[in-house]
Amino acid sequence: MAVASKRSHKYSYLHEQLRDLVTRLAAEHTKPTNRLIAFVQALLLLCVWPFPYIQLRENPAWLYCGLATHMAMLLGLHRP
Q: Of 27-36, 42-51, 62-71, where does mean pLDDT reach its minimum?
């Protein structure tokens, strides 16, 4: 919803409102018990369409990318 609302004229206000919630949810779901393909996909979406940040060092996209890669490998997605 956060990614889709970014370009929507009708729901553009949601993008900024969801930023803190999405960031908190991403941090909470880093536990090994939460290994889901849907979470890997959500992290990758946040890497491609990140929230606006004032400074580059505040952007967690690289962290999300690394976490998505690690979780994907733990799930065995790197195997045929």
A: 27-36
Nearest 5 degrees, angle CA 68-CA 23-CA 74? 20
Q: Cβ distance 41 to 67 under 8 Å?
A: no
**How far is 34 from 45, CA to CA, in rounded Å?**
18
Whole-number Å distance between alpha carbons of 57 and 7: 24
Q: What does the block give as tokens for 70?
A: 């690690």
By C-alpha distance, which of 46, 27, 39, 24 is closest to 74? 39
Query: Which DSSP category does 76 fall into?
Result: T
pTM of the predicted model as reported, rounded to 2 decimal places = 0.67
Query: Taking the mean position of all CA atoms in its chain, how far away is CA 6?
Result: 14
Residue at 14: amino acid letter:
L
